[in-house]
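Re: that chain you flagged

S.,

Sorry for the slow reply, it's been a week of failed gels. I finally had a moment to sit down with the sequence you sent. For the record, here it is as I used it:
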Amino acid sequence: MSGEGIHDEDALNIYTDGSSFPHKQRAAGVGVLFVWVDVNGNEVVEEYSPPGWQSATSDEMEIKAISTALKEIPNILHDLGNFSRILVFCDSQYVVNNFTNAMYVWPTKGWKKTNGLPAANISLWKELRKEVTRAPIKVDIEWVKAHKSNLFNRKADSLARKSSELPFNKPISLGATTRKWSPNSTKRGCVSVSAQAIKIRIVSRKMIKKPLLQEYRYEVICPEDPHFQELDFVYYDGNLSRAHCYEVRLNADQNKPTIVEVIRELEAADYKVFQQ
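Prediction finished late last night. Pasting the structure tokens below so you have them in one place:
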């Protein structure tokens, strides 16, 4: 997979992109570019930038962008008989790498991953799977390098940004986010779990309905901890408040990082001073 985004002239090519902007209270949007060759051999390009959403993550919007594109096809083309397939170009490795699982594997396993934990963004994957199944021709997906030399991918990014400027739709998921202290980006699995006690600050939370869990994004706040200022995810079946700090005990399963005990709540001011 080269990532160059080379068109299939026999296909309906679709470039999608999702955007999420923390500095705009996570206002989010999607951009879609339809590209095909007509019966006269001419390249045709159609743009689509719907109103955005009040809140969403980047991964959520990358999935949403593809289902939005598939839903829009009947408004662009009334007959797909001249196309061999629909080829979606997406710059999200998360989406491309999990597409096959979401279409064929997770639905047969109760939407759980091999480690027994529920897949992330289940409702959005279900929506996308429904649209892929409805499509009259095969839907394939291919990764394209983000915002590099491919003009169509760059245009899809621009359309997604435009979409986010009109966040008329309600938030995508039942979650809540606060501003992080750490300058680092979130990386799932970066914090090693070994049944240790750890001091954390809750950055965001997201409800997972089946099983009933909260997925928390947290940052490590103790400067003596080797994972200081790293951001990761953890599961817990209780309620923790955003922007609050806690000392918790984790389990020892790296595949299923879970809070097994909340030891105490900490004073945020005592740890914010270390975040400079």
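What I noticed first: Helices lie at 58-76, 93-105, 122-134, 151-164, 269-272.

Talk soon,
D.
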